[in-house]
Specification:
This protein is mainly α. It is built from 15 helices and no strands. The chain has two domains: 174 residues, Alpha Horseshoe (Serine Threonine Protein Phosphatase 5, Tetratricopeptide repeat), CATH 1.25.40; 94 residues. Helices cover 74% and strands 0% of the residues. The chain is elongated and about 70 Å long.
Amino acid sequence: MGGPTTKRRSANLLLPVLGLVGVALLGGCAIHTQAEGAPRALRDHDRGQATEAARLLERAGGSDLEEAEALLRSLTRRYPDDEALMLLYAEALLTLNRPLEARSVLEREMGQSPSRSIKAQLLMARTALRVGDVHRAEAILRRAIEAHPSEIAPLLLFIEIGGDEEVALDALRQNPAAFGFAPLRFFEQALRLIFRAAQASPERIEELAPLVGALSTRLVTLHPARSKEVAVKLLPQMSRHPTLYFQLILPFEDEPEMVGLKLAAKEAIRNRQRDR
């Protein structure tokens, strides 16, 4: 688990995280239709209202939020068994800074057992964070990571709130294919996690180096225009962990700036070896 400083920092990390997960939640809920044998599907008019509520919620401003919440409150009363609507309603309450009501909706819908969907688990974790229950959020996210190893969102949130480093490192090692869909922020946070682990246990550097290389390769492929931003932000790590930093910049093209950094990293590695 992260230390006390990490826990205090989690509240400040929450707001940017909400946007990422909120977009994921909105993707399919508002136009939900039920499978055979499931609760009844929304009628056309009600589906239109749900879509409008999702649009208002996405705009996330003032009276739009209140209108979205009112629409969804009405719809959930008419369709109490529709999980997608309940999740969207909880999202609206959380966006309106009413986390206790959001938690009540989620607990009523999902009960105390682990949720059926990744969207619900993320929303339950966010709600726990908003009411200050970091340990519960970590437990929910840990289950989500285990149940959905290819999903980036729960792992990113888990890292950002200071979840158990070994759990996060294991998740990174076990499913590198998931990196292929990750946002830029994920790579920065994952690499910072690895450098922290190396700082705590320098003997693990050789073990961690391939993971840095795999992350950096995906980073350069996915975000070629902005990947250098991550290398620049992590530049102070060159003096602390030159071997890992060299693995970070190795996949970058040999432009003059990167050639200079690679040479500097090699020199730092040689100096470190001489000092031993």
